[in-house]
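In response to reviewer comment 3 from the previous cycle, which asked for concrete evidence that the modeling workflow produces usable outputs, we include below a single protein chain processed end to end. The sequence was submitted unchanged, and the resulting structure tokens are shown without manual editing.
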Amino acid sequence: MRLQKFISNYSSISRRKSETFIKEGKVRVNGSIVTIPYFDVSENDTVIVNGKRIFVDKTNKYYVFYKPVNYLSSFYDQGDQKGLKEFFKERQNLKIAGRLDYYSEGLLLITNNTRLINILTHPSYQIEKEYLVFSYKPISQQLIKAFKKGVMIDSIFYKANDIILVKDTMARIFLTEGKNREIRNVFAAFKQPISRLIRVRVGPLRIGNLKPAEKKEIPEYLIEPLLKLEKQKKIEPENNYKEEG
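The workflow returned the following structure tokens.
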């Protein structure tokens, strides 16, 4: 792992600040000053920044997090768009399993267990996700029937597992595909503008009573049903991190 990435992964220091500290000679690796940001280190090395050692916690961590609207599904800002770093000061190599688009909100799974990340992001595992969708206009039966049957939009096929109409302008939508902005694209094609889109469940994990920007650490036994899926399939990791919703 690159030294710059090691520091940002296992501390609250950003990658940009990590690079600055390294170039200024404020970082030691196993007692020696290192000024090269891409210097290769491992979790077994002793890394000290500004006189403070960075400790590596190797235990698996699992968090359910309520991503607020107007945040990226990333720890890092992109221009004027904010990332999630302010909510995870000590990241300890945490990664975001899957994504929600900038304007969507709801459940994100955040973990340092790469096995879980692969299971949640690889389409072959068919992990069901549940969304609450609010529309400015009554949701048409034409949209519901087409989405359940499967509909082609701009050469991309979209299909919901199920749609339950809660009231005229609100529906529960169940997906396993996780294609880029799937729900928004289908609603836009039927001229049904979305006012709010919330992911409330990923597999067996629910958002519960969490409010926007809140997180909760969860025990591994709640993750076990998902991890057991790995034994049933031997699949190469998926590197496709599209925004869902």
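The chain has a mean pLDDT of 91. We consider this sufficient to address the reviewer's concern, and the full set will be provided in the supplementary archive.
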